[in-house]
Amino acid sequence: MNNENGIRTTRREFLKTAAAATAAVAAVGVPRPGYVAEGGPLKIGLIGCGGRGTGAAQNALAASEAAGIPVQLVALADAFKDQVDRARERLQGQKARENVKLADETCFAGLDAYQKLLATDLDYVILATPPGFRPIHFEAAIAAKKNVFCEKPVGTDAVGIRKFMAAAKKSEEMKLSVVAGTQRRHDRNYRETIKKIQAGEIGDLLAARAYWCGGPVFKARERKPEWSDLEWQMRAWYSFCWLCGDNIVEQHVHNLDVINWALGGHPVSAFASGGRAWKTNEPYMGNIWDNFSVDYEYKVGNRTVHMLSMSRHWVNCAGANGEAVVGSKRESNCRDNLGAKAEGGGEAAMVQEHMDLMNSIIGKGPHMNEAMQVAESSFTAILGRETAYTGRRLGWDELLNSDLDLLPKELTFKAKIPAPPVPIPGSGPGAERPKPAGRKKAAKAKA
Amino acid sequence: MEQRNNPGITRRGFLKTAAAATAGAVVLGAPRPGYVAESGPLKIGLIGCGGRGSGAARDALRAAEIAGVPVQLVALADVFKDKVDAAKKRFMESKGGGLRESIKLTDEMCFSGLDCHEKLLKSDVNYVILATPPGFRPMHFAAAVEAKKHIFTEKPVATDAVGTRKFMAAAKKSEELKLSVVAGTQRRHTLSFIETIKKIHDGKIGEILAARCYDCRGPVFHAKERDPKWSDLEWQIRAWYSYCWLSGDQIVEQAIHSIDAMNWALGAHPVRAFGSGGRAWKTKEQEYMGNIWDNISVDYEYEIGGRTVHMATLTRHWVNSDGIVAEVVVGTQRESDCRDNLGEPLKDEGESGSIQEHIDLINSITGKGRYYNEAMQIAETTFTAIFGREAAYTGRKLTWDGLLNSDLDLLPKELSFEAKIPAPPIPVPGTGPGAEPAKGGKKAGGKKREK
């Protein structure tokens, strides 16, 4: 794709994005706060150098080329030095490496690596560590006045989401640009289709479904004797709920985000089941479940709309990944353009989301701040998970304002952090419910 | 309460029921085949003397009283003698005028052992209640049809594909023989459901676009400790709810009521199913928890009028958790819980469904009411639940025909108290021959790489 064409295509994209955007649109053409490059290449720093972080950095480099906006990847940070080194090697070894400008001084390791990276001059940071750290990292990035590309999900518990939401509000006040890794929002098919759904073309919305049923994801499988509790859990992060949020939060958030988008809000309550159908107590399987089924309730206009959500990590089983919204006139999978021929073209959504962010930063595109939106989608997933873990019907406000806090008290490599237990519904403090006064009395009388 | 004895009300009940019925109606007034005691009382025999069986027999006696038809409970059968004896004692000591007079049990007509049903069916009973653990139902139903008895069959009627096919073959035969068969899915005989679903069928909620049902409640266990004297089979039968071959798991044993209402409202059985679930709190270590799961959720697909309609089903046995039992159909115009009469007041409440179903059966037998044969309908509903369970157990997307014609057969090969019958394992999705994905199936997650 030549540059001129690229820019034209991109330009058209901006206008579409602008039309679809719910965030306040600022004047186009004026560089936004946090844009420090001032005409030079945008300087990008990556926090979290695993597979997704490295991939996101590559997506950003590809976006730069497609959008004709020069960038440089100048800094890396990860809790583990070997992760930083591996990502650096991979990024410097790739074909399109001319914009990878990494130096030893800007490659940071350790639990405070993100703070060191945020102290450097950057136009945007990519946050791609395990999700449990996201609220802390996002809050620090906003405090450091950075624009942010924020991988999904953005928290794993209520306390973390509240922290993220507070920083999200601040980022809006500061007019920082924030784009989230829920890439369907930047996918042309989804955008065109959901615009039509919102315009009433499938009629009244009556029901919805979302699925992320696939095989399991494991990171580290064997614990090295020299690893501390924290290092082990971080290296096997997809197996520990405080780090990954469980499969419903870590992956299914994509589908839940689409339904929130199509229905125009988040659910008000949830009722769910699930458990472990095949996982065993092997340490590398951690404490997450392997399947969830959630009955979410939304208020759409004056109607209650139910969404069935199914997510799981099962081996050698049928898969399902997608969304559906049932309208009084027809059903849509949220990307079918209601049967009309799609325009075609456009960048892959995982590249487009970075183009949209870059253009927001330099002021060539609409201002994008998706922080609150991805916080709501993340919390939608957490709501489903917790209602399954506890066996209780939970309300959005009730859980969001709760003290659900999964992070270890002491986040150090010296601390003793025992692996948290596999959640069992009907047990634990979250499952205790106030009994009706009458029954309590009767129980006492009997005793 | 006064109205219960008023045949006029009951009569109106029949007519309403008749109007809603989908089965072909036969001329009213002519006694049906198998009604041998035209001038004498109906003779009831109970096979399966547990809590539900005893309850069903009492319901039948009450129903006969309301219907004004003379009736006698004359025979009991159960594999275990202690169960028969306890049930007999309870019946003989039961209070309530009419009820006691109609109990005519003698030692000669109380049977036990694995062949107890055969002995009972040889007698001159003409109204058999089948209420053993569901795994035995196909065998018992086939034998009862063979013996040309009218049948009240408790739900569910099977726990696997082979059993359902056996039941269906006997169901067909029972139709040919014009035997009356009513099933224990009592919503079909509950006025609020009948009236509401009639309206749904009349299009009063618009076109049906989605549905959902729930059966989430606390666990059910029978025997919790194994007596060392018990053989494998005796243990499993005494702890029957915990073993899938006997109970079918909770989705089959309990959620069937809600699933039946869904099939009824949607006017079809599903064609595809996709399910998840597992054990979230039950332990392997406790033998009495057997091999069933503690939660199953299913995404059923129905083909209705050129559309695919999804029905979500959530079922579970969880402790200290929230519960819900409900059935909801979403139409283009409004939603209904299948019993709300779409907001209009009901003319009367009618009898409770668990009594009315016996009234309807009795009147079908005597010819005073329309002909009932719910055998095929209950077989389809039972299989709908089995279908969802197997989708979850295997992790596969299953088709109705594929599973119904499969060799899924859970019954132990040798049903004897001498046989070694190890407890079957807890199903693990993605394992076993049933879990091999069909060739050409899409890989989980689709082709596109995602985050």
What key attributes describe this structure?
heterodimer; A: about 450 residues; alpha/beta; Dihydrodipicolinate Reductase, domain 2; 7-stranded mixed β-sheet; 6-stranded parallel β-sheet; about 35% helix; about 15% strand; globular; disordered N terminus; B: about 450 residues; 15 helices; disordered C terminus
- Number of spatially distinct domains of chain B: 2
Using the coordinates shown, work out and report the CATH topology of the largest domain in chain B: Rossmann fold
Beta-sheet strand percentage of chain B? 15-25%
* Fraction in helix of chain B: 25-40%
What this model shows, in words?
The complex is a heterodimer of chains A (447) and B (451). Chain A folds into two domains: 3-185 and 346-373, 3-Layer(aba) Sandwich (Rossmann fold); 188-345 and 377-400, Dihydrodipicolinate Reductase, domain 2, CATH 3.30.360. Helices cover 37% and strands 17% of the residues of chain A. Chain A is built from 15 helices and 13 strands. Chain A has helices at residues 3-20, 51-67, 81-93, 113-118, 134-143, 158-173, 188-198, 229-235, 241-244, 247-250, 253-263, 349-362, 371-390, 396-400, 437-446, and strands at residues 42-47, 71-78, 107-109, 124-127, 147-150, 178-180, 205-214, 269-275, 291-300, 303-313, 320-327, 331-332, 394-395. In chain A, helix 2 (51-67) packs across helix 12 (349-362), helix 5 runs parallel beside helix 6 (158-173) and helix 7 packs parallel to helix 11. The longest helix of chain A has 20 residues, at 371-390. Chain B is α/β, with parallel strands linked by helices and 451 residues long. Chain B has two domains: 2-188 and 350-373, 3-Layer(aba) Sandwich (Rossmann fold), CATH 3.40.50; 207-346 and 381-419, Dihydrodipicolinate Reductase, domain 2, CATH 3.30.360.10. In chain B, 35% of the residues lie in helices and 17% in strands. Chain B has helices at residues 7-20, 51-67, 81-93, 97-101, 116-122, 137-146, 161-176, 191-201, 232-238, 244-247, 250-253, 256-266, 353-366, 375-394, 400-404, and strands spanning 42-47, 71-78, 110-112, 127-130, 150-153, 181-183, 208-217, 272-278, 295-304, 307-317, 324-331, 335-336, 398-399. In chain B, the strands form two sheets. In chain B, strands 12-11-7-10-9-8-13 form a seven-stranded mixed β-sheet. In chain B, strands 3-2-1-4-5-6 form a six-stranded parallel β-sheet, with helices on both faces. In chain B, strand 4 (127-130), helix 6 (137-146) and strand 5 (150-153) form a beta-alpha-beta unit. In chain B, helix 7 (161-176) packs antiparallel against helix 14 (375-394) and helix 12 (256-266) packs across helix 14. The longest helix of chain B is centred in the C-terminal third of the chain and has 20 residues, at 375-394. Chain B starts with 6 loop residues before the first helix and ends in a 47-residue tail after the last helix. The model of chain B is unreliable at 1-27 and 434-449 (pLDDT under 50). At the A-B interface, strand 7, strand 8, strand 9, strand 10 and strand 11 of A face strand 7, strand 8, strand 9, strand 10 and strand 11 of B.
